[in-house]
Amino acid sequence: MSNADYAAFEASRPYFEMVRGALGDLVDGDHFFDVVAEDVIYEVLYDFPGWPRALRGRADLMAQFRGYGDHIKLHSTSHLLVHKTDNGKVVVIEYEVHGAVLSTSAEYNNRFASFITLERRKISYWRDYMDSLAAWNALT
Fold this sequence. Notes:
The chain is of the alpha+beta class. It has a single domain, classed as Nuclear Transport Factor 2, Chain: A, CATH 3.10.450. It has three helices and six strands; from the N terminus they run αββαββββα. Strands 2-1-6-5-4-3 form a six-stranded mixed β-sheet. It is globular and about 45 Å long.
């Protein structure tokens, strides 16, 4: 896909760039969505308003992220730690995201740990943990 195809995801760009950089040469593709398998399973182990616990397929993941920017705009990420296991087939990343809740202009700062399984140089499975209290505080 071209960069124009990803314009709808600009609010999440810092996150996408951080993930793509963390995976480096373990995957093929320039953008986050380029390195996600068509049949990816993206699971979040927390409750977040409007976000399902599991998404199946690249198209559903893109549709869900398309709406993210209606609520939160990220401006940076920080504190990235990358742990490669199983000969690079599993990558664990720990990181923080920083941005703003658009409806209130409140700061949004959160911490995550994501467990990423790679198959055929694409993300086939993603399991995510976040600081739910930070999200709750920012949104309320």
